[in-house]
Specification:
- This is Plant invertase/pectin methylesterase inhibitor protein.
- By secondary structure, the protein is mostly helical.
- It has one domain: Up-down Bundle (Butyryl-CoA Dehydrogenase, subunit A, domain 3).
- It has helices spanning 2-20, 24-32, 40-47, 58-84, 90-118, 122-144, 157-171.
- Helix 2 crosses helix 7, helix 4 (58-84) packs antiparallel against helix 7 and helix 6 packs antiparallel against helix 7 (157-171).
- The longest helix is centred in the middle third of the chain and has 29 residues, at 90-118.
- The N and C termini lie far apart (41 Å).
- The model has no long low-confidence stretch (mean pLDDT 91).
- The structure holds 2-acetamido-2-deoxy-beta-D-glucopyranose (2 copies).
- One 2-acetamido-2-deoxy-beta-D-glucopyranose binds at residues 89, 91-92, 147-148.
Length: 174
């Protein structure tokens, strides 16, 4: 009887360990399996370098991925303000501002999503993330409307994919 309960304790212990290290490969596989946009490789390549990404569960990975998206989007906002300091053309300035506003709105919504997820409001979090995903379209049209090609079109590619990835990982929690 004693050895049986030791066995059960050991088994429980192993199960807890296995659960705690639901690893990045598994979560990336699950999250991207049915996505036509985000690949498994992108998920691994983006999140592997982040400390702790292999030790967290899906909820923890949402937090990490949102922070990474935020860092990337802030990088774009800095690019835009750099471009703004180099032009006096009001049309260009207006486009840069509209794009920057769109991205700022996206970052605000990502922070809201971070909050929603931590409180278990998964569906509400998804709605917020969609706003951030759309910031790339907002920028494209801010420039296109004024007959200018977006100078950040290519730079927006990865940040937007990261927002999609946030979306996909959140869906694992639904
Ligand atoms: C995300 O970034 C915020 C602000 O820097 C930090 O407080 C939080 O711990 C980070 N969350 C994760 C999951 O890394
Ligand atoms: C401002 O930039 C736009 C787009 O590049 C250009 O079409 C327009 O001629 C410029 N305006 C001035 C006053 O230089």
């Amino acid at each position: 009887m004693k050895s049986f309960s030791t066995f059960v304790t050991l088994l429980l212990f192993l199960l807890i360990i296995a659960g705690a290290t639901a690893n990045l490969q598994e979560l990336c596989k699950q999250a991207t399996s049915s996505s036509p946009i985000v690949t498994y490789d992108f998920c691994i390549k983006s999140l592997q370098p982040i400390r702790g990404s292999n030790e967290v569960d899906a909820k923890g990975l949402v937090g990490i991925t949102i922070n990474l998206s935020l860092d990337n989007l802030v990088g774009i906002i800095n690019m835009l303000s750099d471009l703004q300091s180099k032009t006096t053309n009001q049309t260009v300035i207006d486009a840069l501002n509209a794009c920057s506003d769109g991205i700022n709105r996206g970052t605000t919504e990502l922070k809201v999503a971070q909050d929603f997820v931590s409180h278990g409001y998964v569906q509400a979090a998804l709605t917020s993330v969609v706003v951030a995903e759309k910031s790339s379209d907002v920028c494209d049209s801010a420039f296109n409307q004024r007959g200018i090609q977006s100078p950040v079109h290519d730079a927006m590619h990865d940040p937007v994919l990261l927002c999609h990835l946030v979306d996909l990982i959140i869906q694992l929690l639904v």
